[in-house]
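Quick start: what a row looks like.
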Amino acid sequence: MKRDLDRAKDKRTGFSKAEWGLVLAIVLVAMALRPGIVSMGPALPAMIEAFQLSHAMASLMTAIPDLLMGALALPTPWLVRRFGVNKVLMLALGLLSLAIGMRAYADSQGLLISATLGVGAGIAVAGAMFAGIVKASFADRAALMIGIYATALSLGSTLSAGLTGWILQSAGWRLAIGVWAIAGVIALFAWWRVMPTAVTTQAVPHTAATPVARLPLRTPVAWLIALYFACVNFLFYSILTWTAAMYQEQGMPAAEAGAVLASFTFCFMLANPVVGMLSKRLDRRGWLAGCSIVSTIGLAGMATAGAWPWLWVPLTAFGLGGAFTLAMTLPLDHTHTPDAANRWNAFVLTIGYLIAASGPFIMGVMHDHSGHFTGGFQMLVGVSALMLLLATRLKPPA
C-alpha cells in the first residue's frame, strides 16, 4: 500500500518521497555555498578600514574562493570515487562552517587569509560534486535540477547580501559575516538525514570494468563551454565583490548598498529556474546569446557612474542568472554517465573559476590606481560582449 502511494505521488509530482528528500538536501547545501563569499561585498569597506587593506588585497576575500573552486574541481571526482559522496560532502560542509566562524574573529591579516582559504576549499569541493549527483539521480531532468540548484545558490546569496549590511550596521562586521556559518551546519544536518535513503549518496566503487572518463582537453566545445562559464563568473564575482562598495563610496548607507546587491542576487535567482525550464532543446545558443545581450545592456548602465542602480543591477542579474544555469547544464548535454559528467564539470569549473578569480582582483587593482570603479565596470561590459560571441559557437552535440 505504501509503495502504491509513493508511485501515485511520482505520477503527480514527478519526484518520489526519497527524491523529494534529496532535492531538499541539495537546496539546503546549495544555499550554504555562497554566503561565505557574498557577505564579503557589504562588509569589505569595514574590513578594509579594520585591517588597513588595499582594494587589491581586499579582493582576495572573494578571489581566493574563486581560485580554489577552479583548483579543487579536478581532484574532487577522484575524492568522490575514493571515499564516497557522503564523507567528502560532509567534510567539505564542516570545513566551510568552521572557516566562516574563524574568519569572523580573525585578529590579523594572516588569519583572515587562512580562514578564507578554508572557506574556499569547502565551497569548491562541495560545489564540484553536484553535476555527478544530478546525473546519477535526475538524469532525465538535468536542466530542471540544475535550475533548482542554481536557484538555491542564488537564494543563499540573496539572503546574505540583503541581511549582511543590516547586521553590520546593527552589530558590526564580525557578526555580519560569521553568522553564515549556521547555514553550513544546517546543510550538514540535512545531508546526514538523506544519507540512508538517497541512492545518490551511496559510494560506487571504481573497478577495472568501469571506464574512467577523461578530461575533454581535446574537445573544442568543452573549451568554449569553459570560457563561457568563465565569463559568467568573472562578471558575477566582480559584481558581488564591488557593487556594494561602489555605491557606499557614492554615499549610500551600508544597509541600502546591501539591498542593491540583494536585488542583484534576487533577480539572478529568478532567472535560474525560468531559463532552466524554458530552454528545453539541446541547441541552447539562442538562450545563451539572449542572456548575454541582457547582461551587456545592464552592465553598460552600471558603468555610467553607477546611475539608476535599481534598474541596471537587476537587469544585469537576470541575464547572468540565465547564462549561469545554461552554462551549468551544457556539460550534462555532452555526457552520458555520472562520472563523465563529473569530469566535464570539473574541467569547466577549473578553467572557469581560475579565470573568474582574476575579476575581483583586477577591479581592485584598477580602483587602487584610479580611485574609482568606473573603469572596472567598463571592462565588465567588454567581458559580457565576449559572452555573446562565444554563445554563437556553442553547437549542441551531434
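That is the whole record. Residues 104 and 178 are 5 Å apart (CA to CA). Confidence is low (pLDDT under 50) at residues 1-8, 201-212.
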